[in-house]
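Predict the 3D structure for this chain.
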Amino acid sequence: MRKCLLATVICGLSLACSPAPAVHSRVGADPQIITEEEVEASRGTTAYEVIQKLRANYLSYRGETSFDKRKSQPYPMVYLDGQEFGPLSSLRSIPAAQVATIRMYRSWEATTKFGTGNMGGVIAITTRQ
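Done. Predicted structure below.
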C-alpha cells in the first residue's frame, strides 16, 4: 500500500514538474488559407515565395485531370481578386506586400466557385485594399 502511494506521488510530481506542451499558433486555423499576418511573417517578396515557404503543397502536381493530355490541368490556376490571372508562374509577379490572403481551392471547390476548367484547383489571391 505504501509503495503504491509513493509511486502515485512520484508520478504526480514528475507530471507537475514537466514543461507545458507547446501551443501551435495555428491551432484551429484553416490550412487552406494563408492570412495577411502569415504573409508578412514569411518575409517572402512574391506570392510564390510566400506559398513556397508556408504551404508548398499548394504548388504541387495534382496528376492528370483528363485522358486528353492537351486538356489536362495538373497544376492549380491563379486567380487575383476573383479574376483569372494565369498559371503558377504568374505568382512570381505578385508582390507579397500587396497580398491580403491566399486561399487554395481544391478541384471540386474551384469548379463550384470559378466554373469548369479548373480541375487542378485554384490559388486565389486577395489583394490589400
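Helices lie at 2-17, 36-42, 47-54, 107-114.
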